[in-house]
Amino acid sequence: MPGIDESREFIPVRIAVLTVSDTRGLEDDKSGDTLAARLTEAGHILADRAIVKDDMAAITSQLQKWIADKDVDVVISTGGTGLTGRDVTPEAFHSVYEKEIEGFAALFHQISYEKIGTSTIQSRATAGVSHGTYLFALPGSTGACKDGWDGILKYQLDYRYRPCNFVEIMPRLEEHRRK
């Protein structure tokens, strides 16, 4: 049975939260607040937080900064995953991926479908890995952030989760560079 193995010690990870929005600031960033609150309540470390415009270069630049920062293990973004002309978060994420985690989008859509039905089809949530950093892009709604965290990330970012989780393989993400 999948679940938390209480015999294992919790290992906090350092998570940066990125909000992609042309209109939000820190004072009204409810989705970013939701992610920051949930990850710290789970025992993880909020490594950094930023808001960038719906702009490919701005998003990519912030991702590259955090990917290069050894004090950031994970980036979770909110916003810019839809279908409108300004929604370029998935394209920015894909431009820095070394490996995509295809199952993330599939599982996100399954969880989202239970809440919003076929409207989930309008989301382009995505995840991948770059230079040992996990990258997760969630839609901008608070509900989608809750679904992504509560349904997937709180488990996969918990070392105690069995049968497997993202934390236990972190030391191996860059083994191809050690040859």
TrEMBL record:
<dbReference type="GO" id="GO:0006777">
    <property type="term" value="P:Mo-molybdopterin cofactor biosynthetic process"/>
</dbReference>
<protein>
    <recommendedName>
        <fullName>Molybdenum cofactor biosynthesis protein B</fullName>
    </recommendedName>
</protein>
<comment type="function">
    <text>May be involved in the biosynthesis of molybdopterin.</text>
</comment>
<dbReference type="GO" id="GO:0005829">
    <property type="term" value="C:cytosol"/>
</dbReference>
<feature type="domain" description="MoaB/Mog">
    <location>
        <begin position="16"/>
        <end position="160"/>
    </location>
</feature>
<dbReference type="InterPro" id="IPR012245">
    <property type="entry name" value="MoaB"/>
</dbReference>
<dbReference type="InterPro" id="IPR001453">
    <property type="entry name" value="MoaB/Mog_dom"/>
</dbReference>
<comment type="similarity">
    <text>Belongs to the MoaB/Mog family.</text>
</comment>
<dbReference type="InterPro" id="IPR013484">
    <property type="entry name" value="MoaB_proteobac"/>
</dbReference>
<comment type="pathway">
    <text>Cofactor biosynthesis; molybdopterin biosynthesis.</text>
</comment>
<dbReference type="InterPro" id="IPR036425">
    <property type="entry name" value="MoaB/Mog-like_dom_sf"/>
</dbReference>
<keyword id="KW-0501">Molybdenum cofactor biosynthesis</keyword>
<dbReference type="Pfam" id="PF00994">
    <property type="entry name" value="MoCF_biosynth"/>
</dbReference>
